Fold this sequence. Notes:
Distance between the termini: 76 Å
Low-confidence stretches: 1-27
Shape: flat
Mean pLDDT: 90
Radius of gyration: 32 Å
Oligomer: single chain
Amino acid sequence: MKFRYLFPLFFAVLALMTSCKEESEVTLLDDVQVSSSYVAIPVEGGETSITITAKDSWTAEKVTTDKNKVEWLTLSASSGSAGESTLKFTAPATLDGRTAEVLIHSAGKTQRINVMQGLSKIATATCADVIAGPDSKTYQVTGVCTAISNTLYGNWYLTDETGTIYIYGTLDAKGGSKNFLSWGLEVGDEVTVQGPKTTYGTVIELVDVTVIKINKSLIKVDSVENAELPLEGGEFVAHLTCKGQGVSVDIPEDAKSWLSISSIQSNEKGAIVKFKAEANTGGDRGTTITFKTTDGKKNYTTETLLSQKGAIIKASIAEFLAAEVGDTQYRLSGVVVSVANEKYGNLYLRDFSGETYVYGIKDYTANMLKAGDIITIVGKRAEYKGTAQVGGAVLETHIPVAAATIAEVLAKPVDANAYFMITGTIKEIQNEVYGNIVLTEDDSEILMYGCHPGYGATGEARKGLVGAIGLKVGDKLTVVATRGEYKGTPQLANGFYFSHESAE
C-alpha cells in the first residue's frame, strides 16, 4: 500500500521541479522580475515572501473561478510601485494539500507565481465523505450513475450507499471537455471518478472529473409507457434489458399506498414490469422505482421515474409556508408587494396570512405585473438555502390595480371588479375591530368600510388590523379597494391593507 502513494508523490515532485525550471526563465523579463516563481507554504500554515522588481507600477491577482475563490490564500498587497517590493503569501493550517496561482502584471507583461501548501492527495472516499469534506480537495469515489442531466459537458448524479453527489463536468479519455458521450455512460452503470470538490449553493459537486473505471450495469430501463400518469391513475409499464440472474423491484415505502406491481413478464431481453397506480386525490406526486439484478457476486441496479398529476390545493400563504417541499401544486392568491426581477417575474406575494417569494412566473413578460396587482398563481413548495419560495409558478388570473387619488376614486362609478390603490391620511377610526377608517387627501375624503389585514381574508381573519399594527389618526395609509357606495354615499369596499407610514 505504501508504494501505491510513493509513485504519485514522486511524479508530483518531478512535475514541480519541471514547472520551477520553466517558470524561472519567465523571471528574466526586463519590465518585471520576481525572485521566485514558486512559493511553498507549510501544511501547518505560515508566511513566505518573494521580491518583485519592476520598472513600472504592478498589480497582483489570485487566479479564481466562480467555484474556487482561493479564499485560503492572503496576499500582503494587491499593487505596488516601480522599484523593488516585497510580496508576502500567508495561509492558515490545512489537513490537505492545495495549490493556487498568482499573476503579477506590470507594463503589459505578466509573471506567474505557483503557490503550493502541502502535497495534494487523492482520497478514496464515499459520497458521505465528500459531502462532509472540505472544498478544493480531490476525491476518488465509486458509485452508480442514477441520473444524467447534461450529455455535452457530462453533468450527472453519482450515488452510493451513503448518499448522492453531483458530477459537474466529465473529461474524456484524453482530458478534453464537451465529449461526455464518448464514455457511453448509462444510468445504472457503476463508475469510479476522481476530481476536486466544490459547493455551489447547497449542491455538493465534483468538478471536471476524470473517469477511472466504468463497470457496465447488467440491467437497464430501455423504455417506459405512461411515465406521467393522469389524476385518475392507470398502468405504468417498464421494459428492461437484463443480463443478470432475474429481476427484483423496489417501490419506496411512501409510494406503496398508491403504487403496486401488477405483473412481471420475462422475455429474451429481460423483463416487462407493469405497475398499477391508484387515483390521486391530493397534489402532484411521484416516485423513483429501482430495478435490481445480480451476477451471483455483485448486485446491479437501475432506476426510473414515475409521476402522477394531482389535484391543485387551494391554500393561504401561511398554509403554503407550513407545507413540505415537494411537487404538490398549490393555488395561491394575493397582492404583489414588489417585483424583484422584471424579466423573469420574481416577486413577493402577500395575502392576509403571510408573505412568500415567487421565483419566477411563466410568461411573466406578457402580463407585466406590478406592485399592487392582485394575482392567482399555481406552483409548488420550493426552498432556497432554507428559505421557502414558490417554484414553477404559472399565472392563472390577474387583476390590474390602478393607482388613484381619493378625488379620482370619488369620480368613478361603482364597480366591484375595478380595484384601485389609494393613499390617504387617517382622519378618523370609526371601528377598530373591522377597520372602518376615514381617509383624507388634499380636500377629498372617503370612508373605507372595513380594512382587512390582507387579500383573501374571511370571517374572523378580517378583524383586528388596526390594533395589530397600531394604526392611529394622522398615519398615512395605503390600501387596495374598489369604489363602493352606501345609500348614495361613496365609500371604499372590499379593501385591504397594503402599507402605512406612522405619523411619528
